[in-house]
Amino acid sequence: MLKILIPIPPKTKKNSQQIIIVKGRPMIFPSKAYKKYENACGKYMPNLRQPKPYITQPVNVKCLYYMDTRRRCDLNNLLEATTDMLVHYGILEDDNYKIVASHDGSRVYYDKQYPRTEIYIEKFEE
Hints:
The chain is α/β, with parallel strands linked by helices. Helices cover 19% and strands 31% of the residues. Strands 1, 4, 5, 6 and 7 form a five-stranded mixed β-sheet that branches. The protein has a two-stranded antiparallel ribbon with strand order 2-3. It starts with a strand and ends with a strand. The mean pLDDT is 88.
C-alpha cells in the first residue's frame, strides 16, 4: 500500500475554470488557484519518477478529504483532481478504469484545524 498525505486544503479543477481561445476555438483550463494547489502538492508526492515505476495494474485509490469549511463540495470533482494529479506526478500511468478500478472508501470530512487529503493506493481485489 502507498499512503500520501497532502497537508493543505483540497481543491478541485472545476471551480473557476478559465476559458481561453486557442486557434479560434474555446478551450477550458484549470484556474490559476488550482494550478497553484497542484504545484504545492508536488513536494508531498513520493519521487517515483527516477526508475519510472508507474502503477500500471488495477488499484483502489481511496481518498479522504478533510475540508476546512462545511460548504458543500462534490466528491467526484475532488477525486478527478486527485487522480489527474497522481498521473501528473508519475504515480499512476493513467487514471482510466483499467488502472483506477475503484475509489472504494473515499469520503469528505470536516476538519477546520487540519485540512488535508489522505490518499491510499492499494492493489485492487475483486
